[in-house]
Design goal:
- The structure holds 2 protein chains of 2 kinds.
- Chain A is α+β, with helices and mostly antiparallel strands.
- Chain A has 8 helices and 20 strands.
- In chain A, helix 2 crosses helix 7.
- In chain B, strand 2 and strand 3 form a beta hairpin.
- Chain B has a single domain, classed as RNA polymerase II/Efflux pump adaptor protein, barrel-sandwich hybrid domain (OB fold (Dihydrolipoamide Acetyltransferase, E2P), Beta Barrel), CATH 2.40.50.100.
- Classes of the chains: A alpha+beta, B alpha+beta.
- At the A-B interface, loops of A face helix 1, strand 4 and strand 7 of B.
Chain lengths: ~375, ~120
Amino acid sequence: MSDALPENAPPRRTALDSVHRALGATMTDFAGWDMPLRYGSERDEHHAVRTRAGLFDLSHMGEITVTGPQAGELLDYALVGNLSAVKAGRARYTMICDENGGILDDLIVYRLADGRESTYMVVANASNAQVVLDALVARQAGFDAAVRDDRDAYALLAVQGPKAHGVLASLTDADLEGLKYYAGLPGTVAGVPALIARTGYTGEDGFELFAAPQDAEKLWQALLSAGEGEGLVPCGLSCRDTLRLEAGMPLYGHELTRATTPFDAGQGRVVKFEKTTNDGRFVGRDALEAAAERAAATPPRVLVGLVAEGRRVPRAGFPVVTADGTRIGEVTSGAPSPTLGKPIAMVYVDAAHAAPGTEGVAVDIRGTHEPYAVVALPFYKRER
Amino acid sequence: MSNPEQLRYSKEHEWLSTAEDGVATVGITAHAAGALGDVVYVQLPDVGDTVTAGETCGELESTKSVSDLYAPVTGEIVEANQDVVDDPGLVNSAPFEGGWLFKVRVTDEPDDLLSADEYTAFTAG
């Protein structure tokens, strides 16, 4: 046994740090934050989210507020989406790219207000929050809008799973029924002011709650108590990763990188060439148009799913090979899937081997070629 | 979970029972199992293999990582635990009991194996 024990680094701690420790969480360094990896069995936590509900501390995520009459124009220019067209109370999944079309981060952008007081909240991955903030500030010139670092202004809690709605409804008067997927509204939960958003990263129905850090513990305990009878359990980042992998959701640093355009990652739909403002000008446009044409004509590689026939687990970076050992791609994320009961992986493969059902595809797992079935993503889709 | 007094321990987090008729049972500690998380795949040495103290002889795969399994002593494998191959979760649920990994006929052992108290202190640091 070696390499099993997590290393200790000097990390940042969320407002819920003492709560996690009291619960006996195994903590891990994640993008400079000391975050709960799991509280008990990550497989049990995963199943709880699929069948009941799970409660997550996601306070490491990076919030950036963009305000001002031209906030929408700024985001249309800085991001690949058409954010000025998003109505107050709605949200979009989008990306920020560099001039070459390379992905700097994937984002959820919430429009909090429109008109003269136009306000958006951009939520970036913890590992990229500074990059996103710097890029937005750099791209702000000429727009009547302000970019504000609000990373320390919010704690973020997520309650996810089929019972999430009922648990949250017991703590708020907010109109959850009327709150659509990818919508957000300000409200009060357990007496605490919060932005209530119907978003998540698990493939289940669920909510994300942005609240002041000083209110985080009260909110956490209220959700935990309200969910007790419904089988809600605290959940760590380990099951968040297997949940998003089963749901076929990309993760920055794995499926998405600066060397990848949204089109290469199978996410071309997030790029809006038809924009409401700036005559359609935005950072990365020319490179992304070229990437869109390339992807439509001769896709160099395609993001697909693999399901194992054996039990050994593919990991990021492992080669995908054919029967004769020819390398045809690479694993970007892999894990034992608690729902399928088999190892699964997201991989980039040459287009010739990307069709579901393609025969003779294997993953090189430390020198052994383990057979895998090519499947379409996602691996798991909830019943609605 | 406390470390049983009657066992000895390696710094690679294996435990080793007192040899009976020259055969010792080997597993990984509760501390190691807890650090790994849910174990999903176990590859053990085959019966008849010779393993060498301090060298890898198998692997343990969990949700997040794969770890090498090291032989705490030198000797010949006389039994591998098929139950733990079929149900790797035994490593987490019963690391010192049903989650044992293999039995080895000991021909040599290193002089740096730890007592339960020493291992407890080792993992506390």
